[in-house]
């Protein structure tokens, strides 16, 4: 199933030289992650629970 994502947002940790990722949410709650410089249809899709776990792990490593 192809989901429609709206309001792609760039990571606040993006480099000024364009190295970044973008994140958006679909109507069903699925989180999409993509590289804006690559194929716009190449989207990693994760559940809200998976996204929360990923964020928690990243924040724990920053602490």
Descriptive overview:
- By secondary structure, this protein is an alpha+beta fold.
- It has one domain (5-62).
- The protein has one helix spanning 48-62; strands at residues 5-10, 22-26, 31-34, 44-46.
- Strands 1-2-3-4 form a four-stranded antiparallel sheet.
- A hairpin with a 4-residue loop joins strand 2 (22-26) and strand 3.
- The longest helix has 15 residues, at 48-62.
- Residues 7-59 form the DUF397 domain.
- This is DUF397 domain-containing protein.
- InterPro entries: DUF397.
Key traits:
about 60 residues; alpha+beta; four-stranded antiparallel β-sheet; 1 helix; 4 strands; DUF397 domain-containing protein; DUF397
Summarize the structure.
With 63 residues, the chain is α+β, with helices and mostly antiparallel strands. The protein has one helix at residues 48-62; strands at 5-10, 22-26, 31-34, 44-46.
- The unreliable regions are none
Provide the residue-averaged pLDDT. Answer: 87
Structural class based on helices, strands and sheet pairing? alpha+beta
- Most strands sheet: 4 strands, antiparallel
Summarize the amount of helix as a percent range. 10-25%
**Strand order in space, largest sheet:** 1-2-3-4
Q: What form results from the Cα inertia axes? A: flat
Topology order in helix (H) and strand (E) letters = EEEEH
DSSP, total strands: 4
Q: What is the rounded Rg?
A: 12 Å
Number of helical runs? 1
- Termini Cα gap: 38 Å
Protein name: DUF397 domain-containing protein
Pfam family, one: DUF397
InterPro entries: DUF397
Architecture blueprint of SSEs:
Blueprint lengths: L4 E6 L11 E5 L4 E4 L9 E3 L1 H15 L1
Antiparallel strand pairs: 1-2, 2-3, 3-4
């Amino acid at each position: 199933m192809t989901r429609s994502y709206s309001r792609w947002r760039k990571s606040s940790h993006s480099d000024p030289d364009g190295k970044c990722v973008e994140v958006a949410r679909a109507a069903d709650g699925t989180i999409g992650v993509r590289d804006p410089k690559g194929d716009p249809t190449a989207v990693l899709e994760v559940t809200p629970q998976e996204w929360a776990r990923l964020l928690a792990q990243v924040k724990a490593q920053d602490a």
